[in-house]
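Per your request, structure below.
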């Protein structure tokens, strides 16, 4: 073997071991063996579902090349029967070497001849090399056509070249198997992540599609940012591995909610169910006491009727405040008047119509959570970090834990849990935060508010970015331009 061929042979093994992109790997395998053998055409088949599928095809004379991008060649698979030289080589685990297709009687070569008739090509010399893994499992076949000498004339494949191609085919089979294993492991991990994310969403009827929506918006937004960069002459920032890392952070950003108490996550109203039931019971007691006092002559019929009406008004007030989005000053004043009102119980004790605890809960200005409950809810990011700390992420996903756990940090330092600000917050986290807030605003499955119209939500995002300094203004503007929430 000439020195340059030997060097090329050594380089093939190194290049195959370094490639992890499946389609590029298949392309590189075929191109390497074609260059090594100095042949004019070649095809790489992989065994799938009991047949040999065309993966990569190249013919220099016809200037055809297909399959390099992973697209379907459109050709039917070759059945794994002895009627095809490709299938025969794999079945018998032997290399088939043919010097002249049209003068060979050892094998059925009607396939290459039919190809020639359709294309005008002339197939002469050929080798068909099986690809098997370490355990002898069938992987696929390499078929090389028309070896060429130094002058470019078609000649038979030399013995030493056949041995070199067999060696490369063996290395290639192992590399293909390894890449498939890596893909299977990655798919398994992604499936597990989606299951865990679904577990969070299924745990509560509220937020049911939150993470999935964020992942959809996020994927489109990152593509938009890439397209914008390329249009402006800049390199795309979010290459496949980087994009995958960001989206993995999205899928896992709320994983801490697996541990957050349901009574906090599912709190539809300011009063807890038991608090509301206690209030209703108290109003019933007041009505009964009014009736008893009327019958005892302590109250006139008009005074008793007014007392009854007051209890109905009190319930109406509590019902109105309990699940509203925002408590106004007027409502607060009415609640304050209600808590100052008292009645005398059957044991002679004086009790308030509205307890201090109930008043405190109903006085929550926005949302349904008290400060203590909000603190519990905010702990979900700390729990997210704690849970993700137990996963050994690959180098490609090294930032997932950091980005996922920081999605409530704000540029002005008023986020949580670490109160990061400015440049302390990576661009990836800023993107996730925008996605999270937008979906929270427009979601129609939240317990404490109805879904907001998109344009109003975008107005809030703009205000948070440009007036309040909480969001990245440039990214917020690009997010709005992208319309990534639209199909």
């Amino acid at each position: 073997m000439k020195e340059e061929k030997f060097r090329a042979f050594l380089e093939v093994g190194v290049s195959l071991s370094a490639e992890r992109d499946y389609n590029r790997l298949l392309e590189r395998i075929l191109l390497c063996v074609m260059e090594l053998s100095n042949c004019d055409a070649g095809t790489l088949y992989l065994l799938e579902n009991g047949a040999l599928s065309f993966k990569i095809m190249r013919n220099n004379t016809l200037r055809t090349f297909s399959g390099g991008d992973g697209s379907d060649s459109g050709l039917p698979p070759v059945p794994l029967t002895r009627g095809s030289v490709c299938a025969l080589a794999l079945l018998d685990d032997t290399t088939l070497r043919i010097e002249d297709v049209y003068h060979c009687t050892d094998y059925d070569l009607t396939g290459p001849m039919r190809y020639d008739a359709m294309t005008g090509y002339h197939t002469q010399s050929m080798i068909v090399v099986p690809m098997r893994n370490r355990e002898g499992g069938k992987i696929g076949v390499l078929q090389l056509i028309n070896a060429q000498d130094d002058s470019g004339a078609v000649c038979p494949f030399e013995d030493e070249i056949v041995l070199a191609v067999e060696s490369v085919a063996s290395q290639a089979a192992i590399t293909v198997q390894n890449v498939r294993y890596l893909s299977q492991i990655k798919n398994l991990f992604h499936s597990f992540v989606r299951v865990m994310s679904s577990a969070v969403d299924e745990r509560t009827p509220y937020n049911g599609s939150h993470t999935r929506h964020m992942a959809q918006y996020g994927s489109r937004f990152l593509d938009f940012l890439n397209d914008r960069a390329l249009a402006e002459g800049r390199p795309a920032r979010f290459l496949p591995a980087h994009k995958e890392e960001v989206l993995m952070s999205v899928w896992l950003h709320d994983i801490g909610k697996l541990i957050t108490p349901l009574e906090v996550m599912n709190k539809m109203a300011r009063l807890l169910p038991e608090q509301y039931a206690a209030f209703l019971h108290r109003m019933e007691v007041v009505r009964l006491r009014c009736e008893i006092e009327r019958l005892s002559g302590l109250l006139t019929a008009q005074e008793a009727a007014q007392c009854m009406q007051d209890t109905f008004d009190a319930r109406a007030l509590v019902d109105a405040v309990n699940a509203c989005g925002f408590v106004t000053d007027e409502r607060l004043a009415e609640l304050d008047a209600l808590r100052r009102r008292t009645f005398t119980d059957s044991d002679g004790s004086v009790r308030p119509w509205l307890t201090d605890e109930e008043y405190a809960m109903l006085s929550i200005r926005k949302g349904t959570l008290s400060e203590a409950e909000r603190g519990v809810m905010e702990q979900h990011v700390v729990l997210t970090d704690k849970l993700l700390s137990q996963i050994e992420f690959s180098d490609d996903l090294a930032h997932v834990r950091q980005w996922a756990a920081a999605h409530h940090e704000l540029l002005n330092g008023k986020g949580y849990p670490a109160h990061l600000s400015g440049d302390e917050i990576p661009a990836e986290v800023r993107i996730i935060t925008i996605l999270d807030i937008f979906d929270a605003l427009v979601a129609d499955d939240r317990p404490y508010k109805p879904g907001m119209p998109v344009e109003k939500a975008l107005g809030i995002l703009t205000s948070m970015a440009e007036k309040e300094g909480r969001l990245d203004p440039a990214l917020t503007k690009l997010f709005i331009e992208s319309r990534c929430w639209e199909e």
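The mean pLDDT is 89.

Regards,
D.
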